[in-house]
Amino acid sequence: MMYPYMTLNDDTEITHSEMLSDGKVKVYIETPDEKDGFHNAVCWLPEYKWENNGYSDVELEYFKTFVRNNAHLIIEFSQEGGFADASNL
Predict the structure, then answer these.
(1) What is the residue range of 64's domain?
(2) What is the model's pTM?
(3) Per its UniProt entry, which superkingdom is the organism in (predicted)?
(4) What total number of domains does the chain contain?
């Protein structure tokens, strides 16, 4: 199951999985692109292992910083059924 986390101003969608039985959480980032369709990246927490499909080095560095700064929330929400369930919305 993937849960929405955030939508950025450029329509980049950031989602995350529930925590898997091995303690890993998949963070999926996807940005629409008129030329290529979509660019996407995956980060596996807590290892911070990245897979990149189309982002430049500068863009990927931005997302690496974003995920590092939000990892504690993403990991917490992954155990609570996403943001909506964790915040009782």
Answers:
(1) 2-81
(2) 0.90
(3) Bacteria
(4) 1
- Give me the DSSP letters along the chain: -EEEEEE-TT--EEEEEPPPTTS-EEEEEEEEETTTEEEEEEEEETTTEEEEES--HHHHHHHHHHHHHHHHHHHHHHHHTHHHHHTT-
Q: Please check whether residue 86 lies inside any domain of the structure.
A: no
- Is there a domain that residue 89 lies in? no
What is the per-residue pLDDT for 88? 57
Torsion of CA 60, 55, 47, 14, to 10 degrees: 90
Question: Does residue 64 sit within a domain?
Answer: yes
Reading the block at residue 25, the tokens are 């959480």
Beta pairing class for 49-53 and 37-45: antiparallel
Residue 88 in any domain: the answer is no
pLDDT digits 0-9 by tens, 14-64? 999 999 999 999 999 999 998 889 999 999 999 999 999 999 999 999 999
